[in-house]
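Question:
Write out your own:
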Amino acid sequence: MTRNPALGVLLLLSLLTSAAIAGPVPAPTPAPVSPASAAPMPAPVELAAKAWILIDAHTGTVLAEHNADERLPPASLTKLVTDYLIAGEMAAGKFTKDTLVPISVNAWRMGGSKMYVREGTQVPVGDLLQGIIVQSGNDATVAMAEYIAGTEDAFAQLMNQRAQQLGMTNSHFVNATGWPAEGHLTTARDLATLFRATIHDYPENYRLYSEKYFEYNGIKQPNRNLLLWRDSTVDGGKTGHTEDAGYCLVVSAVRENMRLVGVVMGTGSVEARAGNPEAARLRLPLL
């Protein structure tokens, strides 16, 4: 069984693409099925993950799943909700990518992944978006949450409202970043629903998920989605990791003219980077 979320999604994509082209795997039936008329069946998928799902992004059809409705901590996959809200506010004309956002002490002090914005400065929304999506910056995320809603707590209320509107019925968010917090939970199915909506509703924002690098304040950081380097069909996604959440990944790829969205949550480790010369050359971080 693979324990790497990136490799896990690759396995899902590879094994299920042929079946996806023919449609979802049919439910078991007692009636005999002629081998000539049977739809292609994917090989069994074994992932050392708490939950995973693969869907057709165009129709929403579930192609494969495991514990897809189990409520789990999402770590930085939470930022997909934050980005969706930001994109909606921009589409409504409330601000543009050139709008300057003040950086508070709260934003500047955030730990974990950072964009390295400075307290007391003003940063364009466009830069903060790249900091959130490409660098997974907690500081950039809090800055945008405070700009939109006044406080991160108030922004979390907006996140929950939008999640319900999107049909993410098993999700509840306490903050904008995915920082560990009691009751901050979602599911693989809800995340697939959200990423499908991002791709469909805000394609311009979705293109940011394909950027391999972003440099700000003299610091160049790579996208933590390693599949952007490993699979040319993958054009976007988001990683997340905390001790409670494990290693998580949401990704989208176009295979055989079909767009797929895959989610893997709660894996226990990632492969060693030291033995991968290409990864070492790129200095890719852990997921």
